[in-house]
Structures are given as C-alpha cells and as structure tokens.
Write a structure and sequence with these properties.
Layout: H1 6-20, E1 28-32, E2 35-39, H2 51-58, E3 66-70, H3 76-83, E4 88-93, H4 96-108, E5 115-119, E6 132-137, E7 142-144, E8 159-161, H5 164-172, E9 177-188, H6 193-202, E10 206-217, E11 220-230
Parallel strand pairs: 3-4, 3-6, 4-5, 6-9, 7-8
Antiparallel strand pairs: 1-2, 9-11, 10-11
Helix pairs in contact: 2-3
Bound molecules: S-adenosylmethionine.
S-adenosylmethionine binds next to helix 3.
Organism: Saccharothrix mutabilis subsp. mutabilis
Protein name: Methyltransferase small domain-containing protein
Pfam family, one: MTS
C-alpha cells in the first residue's frame, strides 16, 4: 500500500466534510445505537460507520464514578455513559452547536440529574481543581494546516490544526485524573498515527491500544482504535 502524505489525508478530510456535513438548516434528529438523537443545525451528526458507534459501546466506563468527555459532539457517548451507571458526567465541546445538541439529548434521554454540559477548548475552560475517574476524547483525526480557518462548526469534528488540540489533551489529561483514574483517546486510520505516537512521546506519555474495529465510512475502510494514555 502506498504511504499516505499530509495532502492525501487532508483531501480525505475535505471529502468527509462534503459527505458527512450537515445539510439541514432546521433542528433535526438522527438515529444511532437504536436511539433517536437531536441535532442543532451546523453540529456534527455521527453517522453509522463513524467511530462514535463503535467507541460508545467499546470504552470502559467508570460505573459509579466521574466521567469527562472532551469533544462531546451531539452527546451520544455522554448520555450513554450516564445510562451505563456513571454517577457524574461532564460533557464539553468547543462548538456551541455541539453543546446545544448535547443539552437537548441529555433532556431527551432523561439524564439531566447526572450530566453537565459546558463549552471548553480541551481542558482550558474547566475548573483546574476538578478531577475525574475517566477522561475520554473521540478526537478529530485529520491534521489541518496551522492557518486553516474553520468556517462551519462541523469541521471541528474532522480537523485539528497541526494536532495542537490533541497534543494539549495528551499532555494534560493525567492532571485531570483522580487517583487510579484512566485517560483514553481514540484515533483512526484516516489520521497520521505515526505522528501522533511521536507527539505522545513529546508530551511525556505513551499510547496503548485497548481495542479496535474496522468499518466502512464514505467509501473508505477505517480502523477505529481506543488507546489508553499512560505517563
Ligand atoms: C470526532 S468528533 C467526536 C464527536 C462526538 N464525541 C462523537 O463521538 O460523535 C470530535 C469532537 O471534538 C470537538 N473538538 C474539536 N476540537 C476541540 C477542542 N479544541 N476542544 C474541545 N472540543 C473540540 C469537535 O467539535 C467534535 O465535536
């Protein structure tokens, strides 16, 4: 197989934006994992075949404990975490349409008593004293140039400028953990895993694969991986 370049991956990211991007301008709904979900216009809707479907059922949840989801998108995993028995879930995203969609889904699925939704750029807008049993991010895997300009909220679910957000997550996730806590991150084969492994080392952590699954998305075979971040 020919090794993919930055440009090859960036082109696939643009194709994903075109194929998976939101067409609707009114509040809408989608189905995933046998449930119906709300979506505010402009937000990313995880289609069947995207990582959300796999990761949401594959990751280990801290039953009875505190779960932080960075980049919650429409809130599928955050709601699922509460339904799996997490006592407290904090769901954050950098985009307002994702935050609003998650608020709607927390209400729709009746988990308002244990899910809090906030806008945050990775950990930057969270109280530094807050700690969790599990910290998780289904991150955006296509590296965009440093001068890339986001023109729609949905693009934040695909692109990360120079993997700077992911680098911050890798470096800071352990500072957010309670004793014995676990830091998790996903990554799929559309992104540059070799580079992310190097970024992890620069951040002083290593990534250990916990599980993976290959599925078909937008004409591509995509392998989805769950990694544990250890320091
Ligand atoms: C691959 S999507 C996953 C969305 C959702 N968790 C899911 O599984 O459907 C990545 C998410 O991370 C969010 N995101 C991107 N950069 C971020 C940042 N710097 N801080 C917080 N969230 C970010 C995006 O808006 C998007 O919702």
């Amino acid at each position: 197989m020919t090794r993919q370049t930055f440009d090859d991956r960036y082109r696939i990211g643009q194709k994903l934006v075109a194929e998976l991007g939101p067409a609707d301008t009114a509040n809408t709904t989608f189905e995933l994992l046998g449930k119906e979900w709300d979506l505010v216009p402009g937000a990313y809707a995880p289609a069947p075949g995207t990582g959300t479907e796999y990761y949401t059922t594959a990751i280990p949840y801290p039953v009875g404990g505190r779960f932080l989801e960075v980049g919650c998108g429409a809130g599928v995993t955050a709601v699922w975490a509460a339904q799996q028995g997490c006592a407290h879930v904090t769901a954050t995203d950098i985009t307002e349409t994702a935050v609003q969609s998650t608020v709607l889904n927390v209400k729709r699925h009746g988990v308002e008593d244990r899910v809090r939704v906030l806008r945050s750029d990775v950990f930057a807008d969270l109280d530094p004293a807050e700690k969790f049993d599990t910290v998780f991010w289904n991150c955006s895997v296509i590296e965009a140039p440093q001068d890339f300009e986001f023109t729609q909220d949905f693009e934040w679910a695909i692109f990360d400028r120079g993997y700077t957000a992911l680098s911050r997550y890798l470096a800071e996730a352990h500072d957010r953990l309670l004793p014995g806590g676990r830091a998790l991150v996903t990554f799929n084969s559309l992104g540059d895993l070799d580079r992310v492994m190097r970024l992890a080392l620069e951040a002083g952590v290593t990534l250990t694969r916990l599980s993976s699954s290959t599925r078909r998305l937008a004409g591509e075979d995509v392998t989805y991986n769950v990694f544990e971040i250890t320091r």
